[in-house]
Amino acid sequence: xxxxxxxxxxxxxxxxxxxxxxxxxxxxxxxxxxxxxxxxxxxxxxxxxxxxxxxxxxxxxxxxxxxxxxxxxxxxxxxxxxxxxxxxxxxxxxxxxxxxxxxxxxxxxxxxxxxxxxxxxxxxxxxxxxxxxxxxxxxxxx
Amino acid sequence: xxxxxxxxxxxxxxxxxxxxxxxxxxxxxxxxxxxxxxxxxxxxxxxxxxxxxxxxxxxxxxxxxxxxxxxxxxxxxxxxxxxxxxxxxxxxxxxxxxxxxxxxxxxxxxxxxxxxxxxxxxxxxxxxxxxxxxxxxxxxxxxxxxxxxxxxxxxxxxxxxxxxxxxxxxxxxxxxxxxxxxxxxxxxxxxxxxxxxxxxxxxxxxxxxxxxxxxxxxxxxxxxxxxxxxxxxxxxxxxxxxxxxxxxxxxxxxxxxxxxxxxxxxxxxxxxxxxxxxxxxxxxxxxxxxxxxxxxxxxxxxxxxxxxxxxxxxxxxxxxxxxxxxxxxxxxxxxxxxxxxxxxxxxxxxxxxxxxxxxxxxxxxxxxxxxxxxxxxxxxxxxxxxxxxxxxxxxxxxxxxxxxxxxxxxxxxxxxxxxxxxxxxxxxxxxxxxxxxxxxxxxxxxxxxxxxxxxxxxxxxxxxxxxxxxxxxxxxxxxxxxxxxxxxxxxxxxxxxxxxxxxxxxxxxxxxxxxxxxxxxxxxxxxxxxxxxxxxxxxxxxxxxxxxxxxxxxxxxxxxxxxx
Amino acid sequence: xxxxxxxxxxxxxxxxxxxxxxxxxxxxxxxxxxxxxxxxxxxxxxxxxxxxxxxxxxxxxxxxxxxxxxxxxxxxxxxxxxxxxxxxxxxxxxxxxxxxxxxxxxxxxxxxxxxxxxxxxxxxxxxxxxxxxxxxxxxxxxxxxxxxxxx
Lengths: 142, 564, 151
Hints:
The complex is a heterotrimer of chains A (142), B (564) and C (151). Chain A has helices at residues 6-19, 101-104, 112-123, and strands at residues 26-30, 42-48, 59-65, 76-79. Chain A has 142 residues and is α+β, with helices and mostly antiparallel strands. With 151 residues, chain C is α+β, with helices and mostly antiparallel strands. Chain C has a single domain (2-146), classed as Ubiquitin Conjugating Enzyme (Roll). Classes of the chains: A alpha+beta (142), B mainly alpha (564), C alpha+beta (151). Chains B and C meet through helix 8 of B and helix 1 of C. Chain B: Residues 1-81 are annotated as: Disordered.
């Protein structure tokens, strides 16, 4: 297999995201508020809170950073919408990569969609789904 | 599969033949092209070397409740027909045949094809056109395909300017047969850059050679993407198509790709033509040929029945919507989609008993309801007491213009519009739900039949009357459902009253039959019930025929005014 | 492997017989990944600028087209903010008989002849159609601001 360079890999992910694939429960796109978008480093993601949990009917925004060595090196993630969740810093929303499986066991074949789906299932896991949550719609200062 | 009788050596002969034809243009136009349905296809298929009897034919089985088909030509004004009606299959189109005599007014001729028959049909058309155009079989096929099988414009263009017609269609003027060769030391494949006399290459008639491996990879890629005859030479700006002969040469031995290629060819044969559609039922492999043109769809509902059992409209591929024409049916369905979310009136599946207020869910198709709590008997549609409906009086089918006027006086116009819509929708939906329940009823009926067979030692054929009755019920439900759509868009006048009387007669008879089938024990001894059901079935069927005949003719005569 | 052989030959020919105004070199670690420099064509608003592109030959190449994008910011109706290029031969008009060389020549030709009727960057195309003079002025400005001056 020819190794796909970072930029073309991300362009491919972007095009898929623009077409809105998947079940619509997770979505993502480039963060166009950033000046230098040609590098495709800054992304935004959205997760619809999983059912049968405290997150049901809530919408969560996230910021994702894909560094120069993505997808070999895992992306960095933080929640923009306030959330109480194991492995998420309650003050900054930063996701501790060692605390969530999809980042801890990151593989270069994973995509931004894999990441968001992984976080969503983490939110529905037994140790997260019943945690008391901040007011709906409140945001981290980031 | 294809037999190539001519090779490049007798190309000149073909050219001579072509000159002959152009001189005798008038002759062959008359004898071969003025095709109509009476013209048998025997000659044509025999010319093609295909024995008539070898061609598998399949006809829609006509069942008791399905429209029967005859050889008669379609009854609408022939002047309306578009090109395709007189098109290339005039001679081959041999619609479903019935021994039942004359075609009934609402029926249209159609024919069901399986994929093998579709392939045979394409081959037959090509074989017939080959001598007319005097081109190679490969070129004839490509010409026909790029003219979407419309033979008349093709012949006209070809006879006027053969070179231009070929080039425009993507067919090489020099009809050298494609071949696979090697041994050219100057050869270089522009795709993989392999070179030399050892390289085996594919040489099509446009002259752009590539190595066999690359050409095949290129072709298979397109075939897997769904393409067939529209695959072009890989050379940029070359518009020549890869013909079937070349494609089969390249794909030889690759059974999977060949099968896919054939499937794609047949798919485009159906998709490229106005007179063919695929049966829309999921996973159905059949296609239907029918020559009702688009322009006739406002006055005709071409209901066709696939071998798979799916009864649908040839014009729009929705489920059968007789007697409402396509444009009214789609308008109605769109309206229902738009209104269903905003209005709260779709509470039609549950109602309260007017007497004791307990909630009642309709679980059978009959409108004669008996409240489980208080035994009150009433009509599901109007909620009035059943006793008032009696045998003759049935006031549930029409929108009462008097009470609607009152409504308009007291409430706004939009409210009245909604009331009117609700009126028709309730009845439409009622028949839809009842039709679904009729399917359930069939299961119960079958059980009843088994019981009857056991208890009365009747033979299977003697209890067949029950399932016949259910068949008639479900087709009447479907027709009744759509009569309310027709009525919704109809402007009230005397003609509409006549229509509503027919509708009412059918509706009443249908409800009575439903009641008989659903609750047979309420109606006396078994021999009695059987006679009653058989009589009622016959009667309902005759009412159904009357209604459909009348609406079909009425639509063709512009008997009714429709809103906008 | 046939595709690799073709790529090696293409590279060899690009080196032996380079396209004037275009430099394309594979990046050492990946034979399918190219760094490209393209000079803006004469008599275009891109004249006097050297533009950087990246080009990747996917696994299916040459049956599938190469992937190309500009890395230098461009003001052009058929090139978007991410440098993606709207060009038929990079999509449905691709033919396996085309090459890296022909693709780059076509891109260079697109710089000379923008096609605002088939836009990828809608705001730029709009400007190009309503006020071509101003659009060309902006493109010239961007060339000065973002492109590399030729050596």
